[in-house]
Amino acid sequence: MPKSRIAIFASGNGTNAEAIITYFQGHPAISVGAIFCNNPKAFVLERARKHNIRAVIFDRKMLYDSTDVLDFLNGLAITHVILAGFLWLLPEDLVRRYQSRIINIHPALLPKYGGKGMYGMRVHEAVVASGDRETGITIHEVTTDYDDGPVIFKAACEVRPDDSPDVVAGRVHHLEHIHYPRVIEKWINNT
Fold first, then answer.
1. End-to-end CA distance of the chain
2. Phi, psi (5° rounding) for residue 127?
3. Buried-most residue among 50, 51, 106, 157 (CB within 10 A)?
Protein backbone atom coordinates (compact mmCIF):
# COMPACT_ATOMS: atom_id res chain seq x y z
CA MET A 1 0.00 0.00 0.00
CA PRO A 2 1.44 3.44 -0.91
CA LYS A 3 2.47 5.74 1.90
CA SER A 4 0.11 8.62 2.79
CA ARG A 5 1.76 12.04 2.50
CA ILE A 6 0.43 14.92 4.51
CA ALA A 7 0.84 18.64 3.99
CA ILE A 8 0.57 20.79 7.10
CA PHE A 9 -0.81 24.30 6.57
CA ALA A 10 0.32 26.71 9.31
CA SER A 11 0.56 30.47 9.77
CA GLY A 12 2.51 30.98 13.00
CA ASN A 13 4.69 29.42 15.65
CA GLY A 14 4.15 25.82 14.57
CA THR A 15 4.10 23.87 17.83
CA ASN A 16 1.32 21.62 16.54
CA ALA A 17 3.14 21.21 13.23
CA GLU A 18 6.29 20.15 15.06
CA ALA A 19 4.34 17.69 17.23
CA ILE A 20 2.92 16.15 14.03
CA ILE A 21 6.31 16.04 12.29
CA THR A 22 7.92 14.37 15.30
CA TYR A 23 5.10 11.87 15.70
CA PHE A 24 5.31 10.69 12.08
CA GLN A 25 9.13 10.50 11.80
CA GLY A 26 9.89 6.95 10.73
CA HIS A 27 6.20 6.03 10.52
CA PRO A 28 5.69 3.03 8.20
CA ALA A 29 2.60 4.38 6.41
CA ILE A 30 2.41 8.19 6.87
CA SER A 31 4.95 10.94 6.22
CA VAL A 32 4.94 14.73 6.32
CA GLY A 33 5.57 15.87 2.77
CA ALA A 34 5.63 19.63 3.29
CA ILE A 35 4.73 22.63 5.41
CA PHE A 36 2.61 25.19 3.54
CA CYS A 37 2.78 28.66 5.05
CA ASN A 38 1.27 32.02 4.15
CA ASN A 39 3.56 33.98 6.48
CA PRO A 40 7.21 34.20 5.38
CA LYS A 41 8.22 35.29 8.93
CA ALA A 42 6.42 32.45 10.74
CA PHE A 43 8.53 30.35 13.11
CA VAL A 44 6.95 27.19 11.69
CA LEU A 45 9.35 27.61 8.75
CA GLU A 46 12.31 27.29 11.13
CA ARG A 47 10.73 24.14 12.54
CA ALA A 48 10.39 22.75 9.01
CA ARG A 49 14.09 23.49 8.33
CA LYS A 50 15.12 21.84 11.58
CA HIS A 51 13.33 18.63 10.57
CA ASN A 52 14.38 18.81 6.91
CA ILE A 53 10.76 19.20 5.76
CA ARG A 54 10.08 21.07 2.53
CA ALA A 55 8.45 24.48 3.07
CA VAL A 56 6.15 26.08 0.52
CA ILE A 57 5.49 29.78 1.10
CA PHE A 58 2.51 31.26 -0.69
CA ASP A 59 0.44 34.42 -0.76
CA ARG A 60 -3.25 35.20 -1.22
CA LYS A 61 -2.98 35.39 -4.99
CA MET A 62 -1.34 31.95 -5.21
CA LEU A 63 -4.08 30.44 -3.03
CA TYR A 64 -7.19 32.21 -4.30
CA ASP A 65 -6.44 33.47 -7.83
CA SER A 66 -4.37 30.66 -9.33
CA THR A 67 -3.82 26.92 -9.13
CA ASP A 68 -0.29 27.36 -7.71
CA VAL A 69 -1.03 25.85 -4.29
CA LEU A 70 -2.96 22.94 -5.78
CA ASP A 71 -0.14 22.40 -8.28
CA PHE A 72 2.40 22.23 -5.42
CA LEU A 73 0.20 19.75 -3.53
CA ASN A 74 -0.16 17.57 -6.63
CA GLY A 75 3.55 17.79 -7.43
CA LEU A 76 4.42 16.62 -3.92
CA ALA A 77 1.92 13.72 -4.14
CA ILE A 78 0.05 14.98 -1.06
CA THR A 79 -2.83 12.72 -0.04
CA HIS A 80 -4.12 14.57 3.06
CA VAL A 81 -4.08 18.18 4.28
CA ILE A 82 -3.74 19.09 7.96
CA LEU A 83 -4.49 22.61 9.20
CA ALA A 84 -2.47 23.50 12.30
CA GLY A 85 -2.92 27.15 13.14
CA PHE A 86 -3.73 28.18 9.58
CA LEU A 87 -5.91 31.28 9.63
CA TRP A 88 -7.21 31.64 6.06
CA LEU A 89 -10.35 30.02 4.74
CA LEU A 90 -9.46 27.43 2.10
CA PRO A 91 -10.81 28.03 -1.41
CA GLU A 92 -13.54 25.81 -2.79
CA ASP A 93 -11.33 24.14 -5.45
CA LEU A 94 -8.83 22.96 -2.81
CA VAL A 95 -11.58 21.72 -0.48
CA ARG A 96 -13.24 19.91 -3.38
CA ARG A 97 -9.94 18.33 -4.50
CA TYR A 98 -9.27 17.02 -0.99
CA GLN A 99 -12.90 16.32 -0.06
CA SER A 100 -12.99 14.49 3.31
CA ARG A 101 -9.16 14.56 3.39
CA ILE A 102 -8.63 17.93 5.13
CA ILE A 103 -8.88 18.39 8.89
CA ASN A 104 -8.41 21.25 11.29
CA ILE A 105 -7.91 21.62 15.02
CA HIS A 106 -9.79 24.35 16.86
CA PRO A 107 -8.83 25.47 20.40
CA ALA A 108 -12.35 25.23 21.86
CA LEU A 109 -15.27 22.86 22.07
CA LEU A 110 -17.16 23.74 18.89
CA PRO A 111 -19.70 25.08 18.17
CA LYS A 112 -18.70 27.43 21.01
CA TYR A 113 -16.09 30.06 20.16
CA GLY A 114 -15.83 29.14 16.47
CA GLY A 115 -16.14 31.08 13.25
CA LYS A 116 -14.31 33.90 11.55
CA GLY A 117 -11.92 35.78 13.82
CA MET A 118 -11.98 33.15 16.56
CA TYR A 119 -8.46 31.77 16.79
CA GLY A 120 -5.58 31.56 19.24
CA MET A 121 -5.69 33.82 22.28
CA ARG A 122 -8.95 35.38 21.13
CA VAL A 123 -10.64 32.06 21.83
CA HIS A 124 -9.07 31.64 25.28
CA GLU A 125 -9.91 35.24 26.22
CA ALA A 126 -13.55 34.66 25.21
CA VAL A 127 -13.71 31.42 27.23
CA VAL A 128 -12.36 33.13 30.37
CA ALA A 129 -14.62 36.17 29.90
CA SER A 130 -17.68 33.93 29.56
CA GLY A 131 -17.10 32.20 32.88
CA ASP A 132 -17.24 28.76 31.24
CA ARG A 133 -15.79 26.01 33.42
CA GLU A 134 -14.74 23.79 30.52
CA THR A 135 -12.97 24.22 27.22
CA GLY A 136 -10.84 21.99 25.03
CA ILE A 137 -10.14 21.07 21.44
CA THR A 138 -12.22 20.06 18.47
CA ILE A 139 -10.77 18.26 15.46
CA HIS A 140 -13.05 18.44 12.45
CA GLU A 141 -13.20 17.98 8.71
CA VAL A 142 -12.79 21.18 6.72
CA THR A 143 -15.48 22.70 4.53
CA THR A 144 -15.64 26.07 2.80
CA ASP A 145 -16.94 27.69 6.03
CA TYR A 146 -14.95 28.41 9.19
CA ASP A 147 -15.11 25.65 11.83
CA ASP A 148 -18.15 24.05 10.20
CA GLY A 149 -17.15 20.53 9.13
CA PRO A 150 -18.13 17.23 10.73
CA VAL A 151 -16.49 16.68 14.14
CA ILE A 152 -13.97 13.84 14.34
CA PHE A 153 -12.77 14.23 17.94
CA LYS A 154 -13.14 16.41 21.04
CA ALA A 155 -11.20 16.53 24.30
CA ALA A 156 -11.99 18.78 27.26
CA CYS A 157 -10.11 20.41 30.11
CA GLU A 158 -11.30 22.43 33.07
CA VAL A 159 -11.26 26.21 33.35
CA ARG A 160 -10.83 27.37 36.95
CA PRO A 161 -12.33 30.66 38.20
CA ASP A 162 -8.90 32.28 38.64
CA ASP A 163 -7.40 31.08 35.32
CA SER A 164 -5.95 33.63 32.94
CA PRO A 165 -6.25 33.18 29.17
CA ASP A 166 -2.55 32.18 29.15
CA VAL A 167 -3.16 29.38 31.65
CA VAL A 168 -6.14 28.14 29.63
CA ALA A 169 -4.03 28.29 26.45
CA GLY A 170 -1.38 26.10 28.11
CA ARG A 171 -3.94 23.44 29.00
CA VAL A 172 -5.44 23.52 25.51
CA HIS A 173 -2.00 23.30 23.85
CA HIS A 174 -1.26 20.25 25.99
CA LEU A 175 -4.44 18.58 24.67
CA GLU A 176 -3.54 19.55 21.09
CA HIS A 177 -0.04 18.09 21.22
CA ILE A 178 -1.20 14.84 22.83
CA HIS A 179 -4.24 14.20 20.66
CA TYR A 180 -3.81 15.78 17.23
CA PRO A 181 -1.07 13.47 15.87
CA ARG A 182 -2.87 10.34 17.09
CA VAL A 183 -6.22 11.49 15.70
CA ILE A 184 -4.54 12.26 12.35
CA GLU A 185 -3.07 8.76 12.25
CA LYS A 186 -6.40 7.10 13.02
CA TRP A 187 -8.27 9.36 10.58
CA ILE A 188 -5.84 8.65 7.73
CA ASN A 189 -5.97 4.93 8.40
CA ASN A 190 -9.77 5.08 8.13
CA THR A 191 -9.94 7.14 4.90
1. 13
2. -60, -50
3. 106
CATH number, domain containing residue 134: 3.40.50.170
Annotated active-site residue 173? The verdict is: no
Distance CA 21, CA 48 (A): 9
Query: How many beta carbons lie within 10 A of that of residue 75, not counting itself?
Result: 10
Report d(CA 36, CA 62) in Å as an integer. 12
Separation CA 170–CA 149 (nearest Å): 25
Pick the catalytic residue from 80, 106, 140, 179: 106
List of residues 6+ apart from 149 with CB closer than 8 A:
103, 104, 140, 141, 142, 143
Question: Whole-structure pTM over 0.90, yes or no?
Answer: yes
Question: Which structural domain range is residue 108 located in?
Answer: 4-189
Three-class SS of residue 179? helix
pLDDT per residue as tens digits for the range 142-159? 999 999 899 999 999 999
Cα–Cα dist 114/125, whole Å? 13
